[in-house]
Amino acid sequence: MKMPVRSGSLPFQVAFLLLLALSSAVNINGQGSNGICDDKPSLEPRPHSVSISEFGAVGDGKTLNTLAFQNAIFYLKSFADKGGAQLYVPPGRWLTGSFNLTSHLTLFLEKGAVILGSQDPSHWEVVEPLPSYGRGIELPGGRYQSLINGYRLRDVVITGDNGTIDGQGSIWWDWFNSHSLNYSRPHLVEIVNSQTVVVSNLTFLNAPAYNIHPVYCSNVLVQNISVTAPPDSPHTVGVVPDSSDNVCIEESIINIGYDAIALKSGWDEYGIAYGRPTRDVHIRNVLLRSSSGSCIAFGSEMSGGISNVQVDRVHLYNSFSGIEFRTTKGRGGYIEEIIISHVEMENIDTAFAAIGHSWSHPDDHYDPTALPILEQITVQNVVGKNITVAGNFSGIQESPFTSICLFNISLSLNPGSLTSWVCSNVSGTSETVFPEPCPELKSSSSSTCFSLPNSYGRAAVL
Ligand SMILES: *[C@@H]1O[C@H](CO)[C@@H](O)[C@H](O)[C@H]1NC(C)=O
Ligand SMILES: *[C@@H]1O[C@H](CO)[C@@H](O)[C@H](O)[C@H]1NC(C)=O
Ligand SMILES: *[C@@H]1O[C@H](CO)[C@@H](O)[C@H](O)[C@H]1NC(C)=O
Ligand SMILES: *[C@@H]1O[C@H](CO)[C@@H](O)[C@H](O)[C@H]1NC(C)=O
Ligand SMILES: *[C@@H]1O[C@H](CO)[C@@H](O)[C@H](O)[C@H]1NC(C)=O
Ligand SMILES: *[C@@H]1O[C@H](CO)[C@@H](O)[C@H](O)[C@H]1NC(C)=O
Ligand SMILES: *[C@@H]1O[C@H](CO)[C@@H](O)[C@H](O)[C@H]1NC(C)=O
Ligand SMILES: *[C@@H]1O[C@H](CO)[C@@H](O)[C@H](O)[C@H]1NC(C)=O
Ligand SMILES: *[C@@H]1O[C@H](CO)[C@@H](O)[C@H](O)[C@H]1NC(C)=O
Fold first, then answer.
1. What residue stretch is flagged as signal peptide (predicted)?
2. Which listed ligand is nearest to 185 at the C-alpha?
3. The CATH classification of domain 148-441, taken from the options 2.160.20.10, 3.40.50.1220, 3.40.50.1980, 1.10.10.10
4. Rounded to the nearest whole angstrom, what is the distance from the C-alpha of residue 191 to the centroid of ligand 2?
């Protein structure tokens, strides 16, 4: 199939991303920029392509096209061993309930193509909870399947020429707020137990809950997407790498109700038993806004562990929290080997937080003696304007947060700021940090600070 080549103006967002891409040519401390994002899969064009309209789909925004998507993908399964195939979605408004992808498939949304999530819950199948959560995240029991799903796949690409996936989530937000949901809300894209997953060149709107949720996946690339949901949409989240490794998120813009990017790995006894960490993650060149949550969050579900995460060149604005680490007693697991550098932030209530209490449990069977570990977190080269709280580090008495290293950070606080740093049960070191941190973060030894090993990215086999 021949795709029209686009030419056109450069809107603000693209100009911003170009700027980020240019600035990333500068080396960090002479170490170069080796990371997961430098090792990406090469996308071969698929030898076969069919259009969703060949399967009886109607793009009028009213006709339900679930069967057309399911039939098209069933047909395209037969091309899996022939180099794979593309499902082409032409301009139009394609209403659908949830459907499953297949391996070696590219779902391509043309410019002007909009996949619309149905607002009728009976068009969303109810599926089992994820084993690392043991129940739906919002309600005990099952959960609605996501709009676009993948199970045990290889080589799946969801892309386009800035086509749109619109979850029409307002009805789900109302049910969530009025406590009338029967199952936990669905996400837009969920890919489970899969390898080599690409989501790129698309716009995501109004997700019922999460936008992009790779779970138990390896080699995931999220690139050049835009994600938007209203500031008051309850607990909407952008991209959620969950018990997944070798993940790159880059050149994207996320403006969301709760967390923009949240790294997770399972919930209490279920996550501990499943035992699959999120590791080897690289986030760079992103513009993030989170109204009520955090631009970048680690946890609170982190029972399988989170390690080796590199965040660089991020711009965070108009948000409640900039970067937040969350855990609680009973979680087990760890958050460690995290390096965050070149952060610009403005109009943020709390720039950095690490909170070791007050997150909820799936049920009463969690083990309160399963103490999480939070250590080896390095934050450097940060400039912030109009910040209310510079850092809120509230660790766990029985398992204090350690090796928190802060270098070259300059935050200007707004006149309403009463406390710049809050610290308890935490230790670490700092150098050239303004405003001056609490004594707990001023130990003289920086020997245990996490820094990038030269072989960073060795595990990237994308
Ligand atoms: C999609 O896959 C899930 C998990 O394998 C399965 O439960 C569901 O029935 C599938 N749906 C369809 C329409 O094939
Ligand atoms: C990003 O996506 C837009 C369309 O959404 C496209 O025009 C642009 O070329 C893409 N940029 C990159 C770097 O892939
Ligand atoms: C992509 O599409 C969205 C929604 O239609 C639009 O707001 C945005 O400007 C487009 N971006 C680009 C780079 O064309
Ligand atoms: C929940 O279930 C009840 C009883 O079956 C039903 O009346 C109600 O519409 C359902 N709510 C939603 C949001 O699906
Ligand atoms: C995104 O779109 C641009 C412009 O069409 C293309 O060059 C690039 O390969 C696409 N990226 C991905 C990862 O699909
Ligand atoms: C400072 O940030 C707050 C949000 O945290 C915002 O309401 C306020 O308008 C900002 N002030 C200035 C001067 O930009
Ligand atoms: C401190 O951080 C700023 C902002 O990222 C950067 O421009 C500057 O080069 C850094 N200074 C050192 C000594 O690394
Ligand atoms: C620090 O975080 C804790 C837990 O979220 C919160 O209760 C407290 O109010 C925060 N302190 C400040 C000064 O923001
Ligand atoms: C550690 O945290 C506990 C609450 O979990 C608090 O009571 C205690 O005062 C803290 N210890 C220090 C030294 O701040």
1. 1-25
2. 4
3. 2.160.20.10
4. 23
